[in-house]
Amino acid sequence: MATLLFKFVFLDNASPAVVLTSTELTAGDAPTVNISTTALADGTVASDVSGGALTYDTYTKSWSYRLASADLATYLYVGMATTTYATASPASVHALGMVVPDVLPSTLATAAALATVDSNVDAILVDTGTTLPATLGTPAGVSLAADIAAVKVDTAATLVDTGTTLPATLGTPAGADMSADIAAVKSDTAAILIDTAVLETAMADSIPADGTIPSPVQALYMIVQFLNERSTSGTTYTIKKVDGATTLYTLTTNDATTPTSVTRG
């Protein structure tokens, strides 16, 4: 939709013609306007305004009418102003509507507002010319664009590594995935820590009965005590506990001088 302005000038029949003003065209002679529409599609003519009041412009000695919400995409608007003044010639004047701009001078920015915009633009120029370059720093290459391009190349190579090279290097997981493998290793490591903790714990002061297989710890205890605490009497070896007095176990050889066999007990 648009706003249309219609302008009309009335002349009298004198020679030369004189423009009729609001001084002559008053009261019953004041002009009115009729506005018709012509459909652009098929030429159908219809009345839009009938007997509309006109406004006098003392500067141009003309009469005007403002029509709001004109549908210029659909209709052509024609105005006809008429007066009953006796010497008006012609008594009816026609005019096409002029489109009124959507933004009028009264709504334009003021000098103060423009000054504010100018100040802001100056600040932006400082930022783009000084502040931003200082913040961005000196490019590693010939320009920031070159640096960004280099980063893109490195990023593409990284994507290749993470998508192809690393998986190929890591190989196929033993379990469902790498996370499962790592979890299994953690479990085994925990078990190893438990086992090494046992090795650091003092041995129990006991061994199995003769004819019974010892545990690794018991076997180690028997060997250590055999090396550190034993005495020989004839064909008998007596192995003591760590106190050096209590018998832990005994061994018997087949000869006191040149033994060729030994047995426990």
Explained architecture:
The strands form 3 sheets. The protein has a 4-stranded antiparallel beta sheet, with no helix packed on it. It has helices at 111-136, 144-170, 178-199, 216-228, and strands at 2-8, 32-39, 45-53, 55-57, 62-70, 75-82, 92-96, 98-100, 230-233, 236-240, 247-253, 262-264. The chain contains 4 helices and 12 strands. It is α+β, with helices and mostly antiparallel strands. Among the domains are: 2-101; 216-264, no CATH class. Helices cover 33% and strands 27% of the residues. The protein is rod-shaped.
Radius of gyration: 58 Å
Query: Quaternary status of these chains?
Result: single chain
Q: What's the order of the H and E elements?
A: EEEEEEEEHHHHEEEE
In DSSP terms (H or I, runs of 4 or more residues), the helix count works out at 4
Strand and helix map with partners:
Layout: E1 2-8, E2 32-39, E3 45-53, E4 55-57, E5 62-70, E6 75-82, E7 92-96, E8 98-100, H1 111-136, H2 144-170, H3 178-199, H4 216-228, E9 230-233, E10 236-240, E11 247-253, E12 262-264
Antiparallel strand pairs: 1-5, 1-8, 2-3, 2-6, 4-5, 6-7, 9-10, 10-11, 11-12
